[in-house]
Each structure stands twice: as structure tokens, then as C-alpha cells.
Amino acid sequence: MTATTLPLVTRARVHLVLSLGARALEAAAKFGLYALAARALGGHDAGRFFLALSVVHIVSTVARLGLERPLTRHVAAELAVGDGAAAGRAMLTGSAAIGAASAAAGALLFLAAPVVAHDLLRQPDMVAALRLAALIVPLQNLAYALAYALIGLERGAAGQLVMNALAPTLSLTALMLGAGDLARLLIAYAAAFGLCVLLGLGCILGERRRLTTPPGWTPPTEALPSLWHGARPLLVVEVSQASLLSLPVLILGALADPVSVSVFSLCSRLSMLVTTVVLSLGALSAPVFARHYRLADWSALRAAVRHNRRLTLAFCLPLIAVMAVGAAPVLALLDVEAALGVPVLLILLCGQLIFCLLPSRDVLLAMAGEGGILRRLSLWQLAFCTILCLAAIPPWGAVGAALASATIWIGGAVALAVTARRRLPQV
What residues form the membrane-spanning segments (predicted)? Predict the structure, then answer.
């Protein structure tokens, strides 16, 4: 290894450690938040809290307009060919569009809260919670836009902190300091994302020198498609994926009692700690995938895909094993009865196992500009998820929701792996 490459390798390792550290902080903070919220709010209000977050998740995803991954791709790919100014323009365009759409979506959710609570969720006491949750939408999405830009700049640790780790950490702190009712917890959650926005802006300003194009720069022969060209199909993908996470909770909320919603939500969010690690490693790999694809460096792209899979297995398999073996005591910390929660958690972990065996194929396809095929796969997943939830939840409740979710995770992972193999034979 040469003296030139050694610092690069060292920086990459430090970058990886910091990014995973941010995700570890997120996992610990979320576990603490869920455990303390379940005990402080009780089963009924905890169910309403998770239901409100599920609604926010769907509304926020729609309001991001599918621009997240195209934003990362454009920033990384333009920097790879030396056009920092184009990367800056993509960053500004994407962030402004997401901010404007999110402000409108938050206002709409605030106004529509009575309709959503009465007619969709069939829980009239959710109106106030939904109106407070509407405050989260614009702040969360601005933080996400800045985080995806930071990931494109290969500042993954900062991006993970802004997007994922800081908000639950601050919310947990607020809960420990006395925000022990539903209203104050939702306000604290929104305020936490406001601080994330400030941190993200500071990190972006620290990178502003990279967002210029040097004199005499020669543009590549093939230009990237516009940011909106990539966003159109990926909007459908992002909304579908958000629906896959939230749909079982929403259908369960309409057909079952709040305690069942709370049990499934806690088990689902616990199993999603595995997804958190997979997505973190995928986010770290996204700018690398985009750069190598832009430069048509296929051997480097293959190596990056293999490296992503090795890291995913190394981190996720022990995590799954620990949660599976210690399901009962872990759920006891969340104030969930073992008889109710253990079957749900084990079923969900089966889906997560397959997901981590075939990781980041959606990221690879998105960074290669294959949004159209991702859109078709996501719509099929959403259709099957709806059918499975409606079939399984009425007879089996939370267990049925877990069966539907795990089946969709497994089917989606396999379909993405097969598609990536066919669409990108070079990899």
C-alpha cells in the first residue's frame, strides 16, 4: 500500500466507525425512548404515540417528493467528475423543493387531523396528537434533505447524526426530564428535529468550498439526467416503502385495540434496529456506488457491493441472534408481555434475516438510475402487503401483522437481488 493510499484507507475506516457510532447512538436512544415511552405513557397513549409517528412517516415521505436518493446521487456523481457547482445546485434545488412541499404537507395534516382521526383511524381522540405531529413534518424533512446532501458529500457520519441519531437522543432526554405525556413528547420530538436542521446547515456550510467548479474544467461527454427525472419514479418507491412500514400499524389501529397496536409497534421498531444498520451501511455505500457507476469502474463497483454485504452480515447477524435468544427479557424492558410479544418479534426477525442477507440492492439500483424498475417492484410489494394485512390481521391481530410484514420483507429482498443481477450484469 502506498503512502498516498494509506491516509485514504485510514479516513475511510474512521468515516465508517463514526457513521456506525452514530447509528449505534440512534439504536440505543430509540430503544430507550420506546421503553421509557411505553412505561411513562401506558399502553393506550403509547399506541397513540406510535400511530401518530406512523402517520407522520407516510406524510413526510410523500412530501420529500422522491428527491432523497437522487439528491445523494447527484451530489456524489457531480463531485466525482469535478463539477462542484452542479452538486451545489442540486443540493439547493432538492432542499428547497423538499422544504416547501413539507411545509404544505404539515399544514394539510394539521387541517385534516379530524378527518384522519375519525374516518381513517377511527380514533377520535387522536385529533390533538395528529395536530402536534404535523409540526414534525417540515422540520424532519428539512433535516433529511440536509442529511442526504451530506451523505452525497461523503460526510456519512454527520448525515446519520442529523437524520437519525440526534432526534431520538434529544427526545429521550426530554422524556427523562419530564415530558411524560403524549403532547409534550410530540412537541419535544419536533423541537429535536429543529436542532437537527441547525446542525445540518452548519455541516453543509463547512463543505461549501467543495461546491465550486475549477477554471478550465472539462464536462464529461454524458450528462446526468435531471434531479426531477430521478425523483419521479423514486417518489412512488419511497411512498410505497413508507406504506410498507406503516400500513400494518394503520390497519391494526383500525381493526384492533390500542394495546395490540402498541405491542406490534414496539416489536416492529425493535426488529427495525436491524434495518437501521442495513440502511446505515447502504447510505455509506450510496455515494461510492454512484461514483463508480458514473465513472464506469465496474471492478471497483463490484468490490464496493461485496464490501457492503460483508459489513452488513458482520453487524446484523449477531444483533438478530441476540434479539431472538433474548426476546422475552428484551420485551420485558419495553413493558410488553412475553406471551404477546415474543411470537411477533420472532416472526419479524425472520424477515429481517433475509433482508440483511441480500442488502442494499435498492441503493445500488437507485444510484445506477434504475428508478423505473424500483417503482414497479415497490407497487407490487404494496399491493401484496395490503392484501396480506387485510387477510391476516382480522383473525390473528398483531401476529397477523407480523406475518404480513415479514413475508413482504422477504419477498422484496429476493426480488431486488434478482433484479439487480439482471439490470447490472457488470456487478
Answer: 96-117, 129-149, 161-180, 186-205, 242-264, 270-290, 311-332, 338-358, 379-396, 402-420
Amino acid at 61: T
Contact 137, 106 (CB under 8 A): yes
How would you class 294 by CB atoms within 10 Å of its CB: exposed for 0-12, middle for 13-18, buried for 19 or more?
Answer: buried
Task: Give, rounded to a whole angstrom, the gap between the first and last alpha carbons of the chain.
Answer: 25
pLDDT tens-place string over residues 47-96: 888 889 889 988 999 999 999 989 999 999 889 888 888 899 999 999 99
Distance from C-alpha of 44 to C-alpha of 52, rounded to nearest angstrom:
13
* Band of pLDDT at residue 4, cut at 50, 70 and 90: very low
pLDDT tens readout for residues 303-362 = 999 999 998 999 899 999 999 999 999 888 877 888 889 999 999 999 999 999 999 999
Residues 203 and 273 placed together within one structural domain of the fold: no
Number of domains in the chain: 2
Per-residue pLDDT at 211? 87
pLDDT at 6: 46
Task: Give the chain's length.
Answer: 427
Cβ–Cβ contacts within 10 Å for residue 62, how many? 17
How many alpha carbons lie under 13 Å from residue 351 in its C-beta half-sphere? Answer: 25
238 and 196 in a single domain? The answer is no
Is the same domain home to 234 and 204?
no
The sign of the torsion formed by the CA atoms of 149, 155, 157, 158 equals negative
| Alpha helices, DSSP H, located in 227-370 | 227-255, 258-294, 298-325, 327-333, 338-357, 361-367
Does the pLDDT value for residue 393 go beyond 60? yes
- Range of 90's domain? 18-211
Give yes or no: residues 179 and 250 share one domain. Answer: no
| Residue pair 245/382 in contact by the 8 Å Cβ criterion | no
Torsion (CA) 253, 254, 255, 257 in degrees, nearest 10: 40
Cell triple for residue 290?
454512484
- Please state the pTM of the whole predicted model: 0.81
CB-CB contact of 199 with 56 (8 Å): no
Same domain, 57 and 171: yes
Task: Give domain status of residue 222, yes or no.
Answer: no
- Count CA atoms within 13 Å of residue 241 on its CB side: 18
- Cα 293 to chain centroid distance, Å, stands at 23
DSSP string, 314-342: HHHHHHHHHHHHTHHHHHHHTT--HHHHH
Helices (H) and strands (E) in the chain, counts: 16, 0
